[in-house]
Amino acid sequence: MERVSNFLYYYILVILFGFCMYYLHSRSLFILLLIFLVFPLISFVITKLAVRKLELKAVPKNLWTDKNTETEVEFIFKNHTCIPFLSLSADFYIENRFYKNNSVNTVRLSIPAFGEYRFKVPVTPVYNGVVNVNIKNAHVRDMLNIFDIKTKASAGCCFYTIPAVTDEGFIFAPGELYSEESLISVKNANGTQPDGIRDYMAGDKLRNIHWKLSTKYRELLVKEYSDNNEESAILLAELYLPAIDAIIDRLYSIGTSLIESGYTYTLGFASAGSEQLTKLFITDKNALRDSLEKLYLSYPSQSNNASLFALRREYAGDGIIYIHGDNDKAVTDIL
Q: Are residue 153 and residue 192 in the same domain, yes or no?
């Protein structure tokens, strides 16, 4: 409506000049009238050419940001021409890759000739995953504020969410007793009888921990074998969409706890539509964070057992910490 009003005001002025020229027979007014008639076209053409030199950039403050913690994305508009952009508007979108929950906002600004404009957008990720921030649909009005010219300039960036560490991982309370009878029936995947079960000692391998008994008696217990048969410890996660946020929180909590206790393990998950299990060997927190990046770029599934099926195709043993979903909550089982 504003552009229509500007257009009408402009041509009312042109008509008044036309009447003056007609009654006064002034050549100067005639030339001025011609200039007024062609100036909107000149303004449109100049602005149309100038917007091709408009440059947009998006820069996140941090590549990794804690969940529920505010961060910033800085947008930079650069004008590489001698034509000022007095009125520019653009839409910026904030989207979580897993949930596709778009948040759309509009910014309005002006950029001087050969100048730039910077502004920061606060973003608080409330879900785990990749957060995409894009700016597009930029529109520039010409110098007379009559024509609205859409540009092809756009920019975008992304950052990753660091999951929340919860107290719902494995918390072993020392001092609780366990019965000798429960230790006799323990066998590993290939049927080998362990020589015994003992309390965990510093330096013991994670894959030798008996997870079922450790969970039952809330104390780390280790299997001892006379030969070198050892089980592989696997942290297995389902990418079950309704509960994926809680599953990732639980995965990160347990994984971080194991690393801080000096353990290494294999992290496994299966992307939607894939029968192959992605397996990543985790040795420290950097490796865990790198594995999160790969997990975030995978596709969540409506199936709550895809990762388990993929694992069972190649591994029939136990020693598996299995994280899956129950509606929108995470559940941890020892297999």
A: no
